[in-house]
């Protein structure tokens, strides 16, 4: 049967992409971020996951407001690298897992009554790719794991509630566990932490909120799931509402916390937390 | 119904369906900029590009003036704004400085480690 072997909550700041592509990861301003992922990569190497389910949001690269899904699951054999307005990054195509994603779609829709939009084609972008860069560095032969995109609307209100995202994570766990194949799965909840990218409050961050969120995510996720979008946006900036996707990851894991890190150099609190399955 | 968004937040735009509707033309124009060919055609003839997407005169004026704060208020989603920024040679932090009413250098001086960009 399928098994969740771990969960990772992490930010997906777009500027990380070019830093990886131009080999700038050891520059003093970026080293603290990349160093934090060294033990995470060692831990992942020991757990040998086959598949990463990446809970992310598209930033208007492939999805548009003419039709904008609340939850969308990729069910394709592969996912192209998207052009989000700055050109296409030189990355290998992402290989999907059709059998697992088909099973997840059926289990989530029939058993758990999450009515997902199902996508035979998604071009993935920084929301998905930056977390992959940080956790699963690619080589010329491709990415070390298969991956399944799970896209969440966190940019056009009304958004799904934090609680709904948490419940989706719980359902995702049950769905993975009912998969007949032998798959070792990591769930990644991406985005945030505190940041605001528009208005006079551009550049706003709140480390105290971010640390509190990490504490609660570890010790009281059920209570944290009651948080409103209003509170996140007021205390951590409008774009910090992406943090609701971390609750999907948290709903899918039951084990103890392994790693935790925080770095906020520019305009976004870049958090990292990992859990055993 | 438990409301998730209960009030205005100072100096903050909350992108909801009302704002999305207002910004429909602008956001469609920006969506097209996710293609090299379209970015080139925008750079070649901005006016024709804006007319193609049926922008109103005030909307066109916001793009001509590179008024990023105004574009957000007119319903451009921040992630779409990044695409028009890219096509006009304005990165996120340049646009952010303008939205804060600061110069780029002033904005950078408010950051902890401004080389992380």
Textual characterization of the structure:
The complex is a heterodimer of chains A (277) and B (117). Chain A has 277 residues and is α/β, with parallel strands linked by helices. Chain A contains 9 helices and 11 strands. Chain A has helices spanning 16-21, 31-47, 98-111, 126-135, 162-177, 207-219, 221-224, 229-236, 244-252, and strands spanning 3-10, 51-56, 71-74, 78-81, 94-95, 117-119, 123-124, 146-152, 184-190, 257-263, 270-276. In chain A, strands 6-3-8-2-9-1-11-10 form an 8-stranded mixed beta sheet, sandwiched between helices. The relative contact order of chain A is 0.23. The mean pLDDT of chain A is 97. Chain B is mainly alpha-helical. Helices cover 60% and strands 0% of the residues of chain B. Chain B has 9 helices and no strands. In chain B, helix 3 packs across helix 4. The model of chain B has no long low-confidence stretch (mean pLDDT 96). The chains are: A alpha/beta (277), B mainly alpha (117). The interface between A and B is large, with 44 and 53 residues.
């Amino acid at each position: 049967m399928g098994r969740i072997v771990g969960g990772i909550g992490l930010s997906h700041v777009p500027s990380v992409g070019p830093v990886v592509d131009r080999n700038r990861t050891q520059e003093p301003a970026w080293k603290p971020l990349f160093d934090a992922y060294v033990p995470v990569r060692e831990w992942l190497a020991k757990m040998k996951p086959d598949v990463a389910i990446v809970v992310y949001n598209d930033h208007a690269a492939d999805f548009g407001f003419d039709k904008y899904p609340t939850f969308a699951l990729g069910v394709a054999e592969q996912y192209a690298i998207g052009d989000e307005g700055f050109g296409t990054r030189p990355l290998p195509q992402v290989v999907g897992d059709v059998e697992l994603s088909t099973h997840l779609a059926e289990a989530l829709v029939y058993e758990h009554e999450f009515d997902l939009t199902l996508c035979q084609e998604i071009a993935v972008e920084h929301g998905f790719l930056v977390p992959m860069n940080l956790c699963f560095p690619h080589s010329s032969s491709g990415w070390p794991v298969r991956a399944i995109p799970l896209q969440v609307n966190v940019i056009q209100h009304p958004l799904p509630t934090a609680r709904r995202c948490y419940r989706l994570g719980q359902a995702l766990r049950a769905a993975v566990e009912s998969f007949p194949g032998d798959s070792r799965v990591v769930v990644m909840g991406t985005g945030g932490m505190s940041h605001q990218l528009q208005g006079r409050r551009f550049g706003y961050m709140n480390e105290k909120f971010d640390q509190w969120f990490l504490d609660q995510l570890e010790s009281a996720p059920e209570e944290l799931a009651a948080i409103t979008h209003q509170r996140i946006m007021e205390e951590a900036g409008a774009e910090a509402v992406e943090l609701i996707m971390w609750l999907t990851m948290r709903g899918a894991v039951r084990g103890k916390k392994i790693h935790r890190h925080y770095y906020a150099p520019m305009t976004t609190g870049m958090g990292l937390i990992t859990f055993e399955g | 119904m438990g409301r998730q968004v209960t009030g205005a937040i100072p100096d903050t735009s909350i992108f909801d369906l009302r704002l999305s509707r207002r910004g429909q033309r602008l956001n469609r124009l920006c969506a097209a900029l996710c293609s090299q060919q379209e970015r080139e055609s925008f750079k070649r003839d901005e006016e024709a590009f804006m007319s193609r997407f049926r922008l109103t005169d005030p909307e066109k004026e916001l793009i001509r003036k590179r008024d990023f704060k105004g574009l957000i208020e007119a319903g451009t989603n921040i992630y779409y704004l990044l695409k028009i920024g890219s096509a006009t040679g304005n990165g996120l932090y340049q646009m952010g400085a303008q939205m804060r009413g600061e110069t780029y250098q002033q904005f950078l001086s408010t950051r902890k480690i401004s080389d992380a960009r």
